[in-house]
């Protein structure tokens, strides 16, 4: 059982880390501007589902092997960055169709597809692996029992907090998009803006954040 002081310390650290806007927030905002609240929230959920295997891998030691391998880390980094750029390009290419669908009340993408896209982004982010490898062990108490179980608990807590925070960003950005929805042209521009944000984010992730 994780000691209460460790749990409280982790909660305090997690809240601070979660509320600080980072790459995930930029991704969520970009998706929400391109696809609306539904698309943003489904992207948040899909991203979170993609992080679950990472938490499990880190808890049982597999994550450390990935962070120690320059080849695996680099492959994951570029794969994730390229996929985000691809989603951004798609948002720009299909901005007119998205605006038409929204005007007609038609969902731009299926639920499964938007969840799947968020999942791929979540599971291919090596920085998430490195983050959990670096942070979770600091709050574990080996004398308290099963260490993987403690890390799973901490990872789950962080994931719930991240879901709440990212969900709020998705709702805010999606609501702003809905406000602009009175004009199809403005929706096209917002869709393009969201796509540009995702392309920029993918580019930044590809050229920065080298393995440390």
UniProtKB/TrEMBL annotation:
Q: Which GO terms describe its cellular component?
A: plasma membrane
- Topology term for the membrane: Multi-pass membrane protein
Q: Where are the transmembrane segments?
A: 6-29, 41-66, 72-92, 119-140, 152-172, 192-210
Which InterPro entries does this entry report, sorted A to Z? LeuE-type
Major place of residence: membrane
Q: What Pfam families is this protein classified in?
A: LysE
Supply the alphabetized keyword list. Cell membrane, Membrane, Transmembrane, Transmembrane helix
Gene Ontology MF terms in the entry: amino acid transmembrane transporter activity
Name the UniProt record assigns to this protein: Lysine transporter LysE
| Species in which this protein is naturally found | Pseudolysinimonas yzui
């Amino acid at each position: 059982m994780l000691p209460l002081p460790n749990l409280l310390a982790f909660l305090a650290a997690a809240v601070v880390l979660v509320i600080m806007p980072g790459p995930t927030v930029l991704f969520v905002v970009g998706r929400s501007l391109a696809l609306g609240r539904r698309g943003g929230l489904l992207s948040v959920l899909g991203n979170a589902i993609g992080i679950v295997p990472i938490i499990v891998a880190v808890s049982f030691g597999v994550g450390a092997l990935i962070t120690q391998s320059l080849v695996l880390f680099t492959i994951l980094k570029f794969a994730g960055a390229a996929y985000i750029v691809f989603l951004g390009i798609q948002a720009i290419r299909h901005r007119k169709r998205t605006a038409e669908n929204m005007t007609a009340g038609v969902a731009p993408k299926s639920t499964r597809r938007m969840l799947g896209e968020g999942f791929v982004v979540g599971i291919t982010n090596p920085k998430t692996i490195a983050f959990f490898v670096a942070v979770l062990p600091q709050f574990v108490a080996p004398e308290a029992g099963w260490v993987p179980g403690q890390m799973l608990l901490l990872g789950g807590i962080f994931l719930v907090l991240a879901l709440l925070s990212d969900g709020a960003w998705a709702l805010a950005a999606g609501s702003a998009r809905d406000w602009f929805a009175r004009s199809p042209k403005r929706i096209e521009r917002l869709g393009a803006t969201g796509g540009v944000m995702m392309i920029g984010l993918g580019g930044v992730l590809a050229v920065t954040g080298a393995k440390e």
